[in-house]
Amino acid sequence: MQNLVEFNETMTERKSEEGITVKKEENFSEWYSQILDKAEITDLRYSVKGFVVIRPWGAMTIENMYQLYEKALQKTNHKPTFFPIVIPEKNFEKESSHVKGFSPQVFWLEKIKGEDRLALRPTSETAMYQMYSLWIRSWRDLPLKIYQRANVFRYETKATRPLIRAREFYWIEAHDCFATLKEAEAQVQEDILTTEKIMHQKFGVPFLPLKRPEWDKFPGAIYTIGSDSLMPDGKIIQQPSTHLLGQNFSKPFDVKFKDEDGKEQYVWQTCYGPAISRILASVISTHGDDSGLVMPFCISPIQIVIIPIFNKENKNKILKESEKIKEQLEKLELRTEIDSTEKRPGEKYHEWELKGVPFRLEIGEKELKEEKLTLFVRDTKNKTNISIKDLAKINSFGEEFDKRLKEKANKIFKNNIISCKSKSEIKKAIENKKIAKINFCSIEKEGEKCAEIIEKEIGAEVRGSLANKKETPDGKCVICGKKANEVVYVGKSY
User: Fold this and answer.
1) Looking at the 3D structure of the chain, how many domains does it have?
2) Which of 66, 123, 138, 381 is most buried, by the most CB atoms less than 10 A from its CB?
């Protein structure tokens, strides 16, 4: 029979095999892969490259994220809709720069004799605007603000990474029409604010809203504003982007209206695309630790897990009391689960920590006698006691939980942005997994040569300049030495 030391060593080895076996800071790529697998977010064994199966824990999280985002959009007068997944080739051909930008990534369906060739949607401009031309007649029909949740398909040629860069991903896209350019530009600013309210304030993922350089804007847009976050491996992940389309799509798709004077005008358009699967990747990577996921309270599929600690004699009593507590919590609209399996308490703790559940309530004979439960907090890993009478406080605990995650992420993000005055400083910043902030000549076409030098010699990209704040350069362009007109941010991306 094993002695106690041998038994503990065996259990430690078993937990090591079941849990995360690498440290996040030392090997992010492997850590991320293990998180997706062991926390049951995805299953990568699907037999088509670039496509993954989203498992229940991941799907429930995504659903919660969708709901928060859609609620925010509806508050800004967006209405939901659903459009077909297929787009006829003739629609793509109506806007030349758009088709040029997306053609290499399009999944084309085998052509059926006598019908147009069809594409699986890479994005929905060319599907939706055909209908907008039928729906909009008068200035009274504007603004038109519509969104859909959808999965999109892009033939990604680079190395695919689950949730980060895939051939199928989940997102929301909003497509809006206005009578004036001023209204359209105001919508772009509203989109940035929506990203701030949801992705940053709710999910705790910080970002830089950056106006993309002319050479990196969305195909067919006047300009693009992308939201860039930083992953632990030093690579930038593009988050929700918003595009001022102007009249570049309304003219080829004949989307026009009669103004108050009866004169026919083309609408001004914007589009906004929060990629939910990418945001989930950022949530996982930003908040997770060496024990597993750390799920924000607002989106965790289960916010509180109850662990009944029982033996044969008191099992029924403990489970009955656990059900009562669960009912109390559900009346407070808290997503609650009882783990009544026969596993040892330590195994249960380990599994739910791995899945990132914010709070764990332990209830056994001792807790019942004292009318106090043991509360474990996932991010701090602290244990405290909470009276059964005070369970209503958990909602406020949840708000504090998410606030801590956000503040911690903000601090790390801020410390990873480095001002650089030379190419060597930029290179050092990138090598140290940072974002470089530099003086730059221009994000218009004339700045592209300097951007190419950065990409060739440093292996990084000019991501753009701040869209919500004008930053004044204090010197010459770091690359060409000419007058700097912009402060830009440079980093590696997926």
Assistant:
1) 3
2) 123
